[in-house]
Amino acid sequence: MAEALRVGIAGLGTVGAAVVRIMAAKAGEFTRQCGRDLVVTAISARDRTKDRGADLSGAKWFDDPVSLAKSGDIDVFVELIGGDSGPAHDCVKAALEAGRHVVTANKALLAKHGVALAEIAESKGVLLNYEAAVAGGIPVIKTMREAMAGNSVTRVFGILNGTCNYILTRMEAEGLSFQDCLKDAQRLGYAEADPTFDIEGHDTAHKLSILTSLAFGTKIAADDIYMEGISNISQADIRAAGELGYRIKLLGVAQKTESGIEQRVHPTMVPTASVIAQVHGVTNAVAIETDIVGELLLSGPGAGGNATASAVLGDIADIAKSSPGFQHGPVFGRPAKELRPYKKAQMRTHAGGYFIRLTVHDRVGVFAAVAKRMADNSISLESIVQHAVGANEDQQKTVILVTHETTEAAVRKAVDGITKDGHLTDKPQVIRIERAG
Ligand code: HSE
User: Fold this and answer.
1) N or C: which end of the chain has fewer CB within 10 A?
2) In terms of residue numbers, what domain contains 52?
3) Does 219 participate in catalysis according to the annotation?
4) Residues 89-126: pLDDT tens digits?
């Protein structure tokens, strides 16, 4: 049998602990599948004494993850520290430069430094595997990187953050507050160390930037993503969406348009009957549309220790199965040096339907003024509904508009005009509608 694959792990949080536990519990299965043993030979983590459900007494402990990354005791370095710079970046770079294969779950790191790290990995002839960085346990990286050669992608979109989908699902199903749902997501180990990364869309944007690069062969451009989170989604929006035949999801969307590539993360209305609308709780889903295969939809657990560990272990097993000296495939599906510059489509040119919820004074002429602003901006309405608002129903009404396809620029101009007209009693709410089958 081939020599054991020596694995060094930096970071034993929720995911790291699950990785060592499963490696120990399923050691025989890994050996049978890979034709060699997988052994954790080195660890760097904050607390040496904590019980992780696996015997780690044979592993060498390092206080400094960079020393572990460079150590001669390992063949593969697994980075589960997190963060886009600092120790995570230093140790991944050091490991690649030392000619070690790297497995990481770190989307923030790849969003910022992915292309530079890929160049190092490719020049050293080692693997940089990152299946766990996007959509937890769903094998979307392998699918896009390896299984779709020759396909031209037109749009890739999905539910990429388990915490947000969990919150939106429970808000809709149980009428719970945003804060209560967030607390539960944190308790269950879904949320990032700083949950604003989840709820304000940063985590989705990091993952989307990686998918965009795989989809369109462009350099990662995570700073060029239009981003809105879910913290201003109210029960009023969720109820109105339901009445109109929609469900609200936080989507990340990358789409090829005539003027460039749109990358956007925002709460989105999807038809209740669409497949993606049936994706509930911490489950993620990624839809990929191409000229050859048509539309693929992958769904599965997007966060949590075991789901993410499953992807990390698959990446480690791929390294164990690869032959020594074998020329490995490029990190982002094509050589890093050939990734093209990203050409951004401006958000104001985005075309689609819109949901607009206005809280207005109940007085003569308001409805007409709203309709006029729409017409002045060439926005055609699919529906317009008026409701009374709670205890103030004598003075306030909610007006809900759904538009036919129009542009972001037209909607912004119309809503600015309505705001200036002075009929609103609260901030207007605008939610984009996404075509989904
Ligand atoms: N906080 C992330 C999520 C974890 O909720 O999806 C997986 O990246």
Assistant:
1) N
2) 5-137+305-329
3) no
4) 999 999 999 999 999 999 999 999 999 999 999 999 99
